[in-house]
Design a protein that fits this description.
With 346 residues, the chain is of the alpha/beta class. The chain has one domain: Metallo-beta-lactamase, Chain A (4-Layer Sandwich), CATH 3.60.15. Helix content is 28%, strand content 22%. Strands 1, 2, 3, 4, 5, 6, 7 and 13 form an 8-stranded mixed beta sheet that branches. Strands 8-9-10-11-12 form a 5-stranded mixed beta sheet.
């Protein structure tokens, strides 16, 4: 794996304002390097589940709506690429174990409050599972090389990698994860607990885990960028396709959160103008809000403008705002069609 030294130098700056300026300068050379390295071999985006999420968290309190929840759709990315040695690799980005993730305290409490039927049927919708999507793509579990997540909220990786008393589904896969993100799951702060699956990493063989420091440029056209903020170890997937460079992230819940002055969501534009902010973070956690802002600026500059509407960047939220009758007035102003690249091959 390679690293972007220019980003390492920017993140090393201690003063938040200086960090932000340095990241702005660093974004363009990183974007150019990724684009020049060529597109990934193949990419597919697979919807997994749509879940309720507090409106006040989704837009950091900026949206004006009586609806207590918005609906977010989580996707898995299947990326095939050649590593720097020319070896063909398959990466699953955000392969959520929906059943185990439902035991996360926030959603377990939601089910208890509204009842399992209401919470499971009306407030959530499963579109497919990791294994069903892989089967549709013609991939077997033994053909997956890497798993990675933007962050580990809701994630229980024991079923994928195996743990004490739990057989693993993917016999070869290694987990690529930020060192700090992995360490945080072992000793959660009280303000983190509600968003993490209970014991979601306990007993996993450390030999199956690759802790990352800095950015991880995995191969031509694909990288896991260090983008802390929503969590201290947050990572964003950058992938080059024939449609351009796309960034997948959990730092924002809608593409318009990266261009709030274009948003028609009630309150979002007004909040951004009043606060003088160019992005609106996903605010369920406040681990590092200044870094989250800087990360979102980096993400949108690396992604570049959308070919569909250049007023919006090529950033796809990993949990994306989804129109719903349950959330009047909170439909996205603009949504990107998830990119599809090449042909997925065993």
């Amino acid at each position: 794996m390679k690293r972007f030294n220019v980003l390492d130098a920017a993140w090393a700056l201690e003063v938040p304002g200086e960090r932000l300026k340095a990241l702005r300068r660093a974004a363009q050379p990183v974007r150019e390097a990724l684009l020049a390295s060529g597109p990934v071999t193949a990419l597919r985006c697979c919807p997994l589940v749509t879940l309720p999420y507090p409106t006040t968290y989704a837009f950091s309190g900026a949206a004006l709506s009586p609806a207590p929840y918005v609906q977010l759709t989580g996707r898995m990315g299947v990326v095939q690429f050649n590593d720097w040695e020319g070896q063909a690799r398959t990466l699953l980005f955000n392969p959520s174990d929906v059943e185990r993730g439902g035991k996360t305290p926030f959603y377990a409490n939601l089910a208890q409050r509204y009842g399992t039927f209401v919470a499971g049927r009306l407030l959530g919708q499963v579109h497919g599972t990791v294994l069903s999507h892989l089967a549709e793509l013609g991939l077997g579990v033994q053909q997956v090389d890497y798993l990675a997540y933007d962050h580990l909220h809701l994630q229980d990786v024991r079923g994928w990698l195996g743990a004490e008393g739990i057989p693993g589904v993917f016999p070869r896969a290694q987990l690529l994860v930020d060192r700090l993100e992995w360490a945080s799951t072992r000793e959660l702060h009280p303000m983190q607990v509600v968003w993490y699956a209970p014991e979601g990493t306990r007993g996993v063989d450390e030999r199956r885990v690759v802790p990352l420091e800095g950015d991880a440029w995995l191969g031509p056209g694909v990288a896991l960028l260090r983008t802390p903020g929503h969590t201290l170890g947050h990572r964003s997937l950058a992938a080059v396709t024939d449609r351009g460079l796309f960034v997948f992230s959990g730092n924002g819940v809608a593409t318009e959160c990266y261009a709030p002055l274009q948003s028609t969501l009630p309150g979002l534009r007004t909040w951004a103008e009043r606060m003088g902010c160019e992005v609106v973070p996903n605010g369920s956690t406040l681990e590092s809000s200044l870094d989250q802002y800087a990360s979102m600026v980096l993400e949108k500059l690396v992604a570049g403008p959308s070919s569909v509407d250049p007023l919006y960047p090529n950033v796809l939220p990993s949990g994306e705002l989804t129109a719903s009758l349950l959330c009047p007035g909170l439909s996205p102003t603009f949504s990107l069609d998830p990119p599809s690249q090449g042909a997925i091959r065993p």
